[in-house]
Amino acid sequence: xxxxxxxxxxxxxxxxxxxxxxxxxxxxxxxxxxxxxxxxxxxxxxxxxxxxxxxxxxxxxxxxxxxxxxxxxxxxxxxxxxxxxxxxxxxxxxxxxxxxxxxxxxxxxxxxxxxxxxxxxxxxxxxxxxxxxxxxxxxxxxxxxxxxxxxxxxxxxxxxxxxxxxxxxxxxxxxxxxxxxxxxxxxxxxxxxxxxxxxxxxxxxxxxxxxxxxxxxxxxxxxxxxxxxxx
Length: 231
Description:
Largest sheet: 6 strands, mixed
Mean pLDDT: 77
Radius of gyration: 28 Å
Distance between the termini: 88 Å
Helix content: 25-40%
Order of helices and strands: HEHEHEEEEEHEEH
């Protein structure tokens, strides 16, 4: 009886592990774990501006040196205005001449695309728990596949739990992200281009030019009535 049960269990495992070789659509799969920075302060704007400028400067060194002109968008958001200002500073620090007028200069264009996802996106965190061993030594432990696995590192006299988790931004995964693209071009071609994506705090959406829908307008419904009979 035990042998039959074991054979049936083994057969079930084999069948469960066999995936179909043919499907009408691709199977959904997660990407490998990555990290994406969350913008939470004006200082962060300067950090990404400096990083963008370094990438743009690296590409521009492949062409003969020319002045550049920052083409700030009309009706720019606070973020776009700050980005244009800080990008000017960063490019000057990289040794480039930044013109006040577009004549005779390469044009630097700024594009910021805001993307709003669902508000209940998954929030991933490190699932470890801290435990004190002895003499101020902390160890991280994690529950994985039903078994307790000790972390590979014990840090003496340091709260390793706080140290490890400090890399994660607090709060839920934001529903708002921005895609920042900086392009350098002349009238014929692009000479440099940099695109990056960032999370932004949902409470700061107005800083990135995101206009929230008016709740009163959303509740208004237009109706048409047909009148019958004599008037």
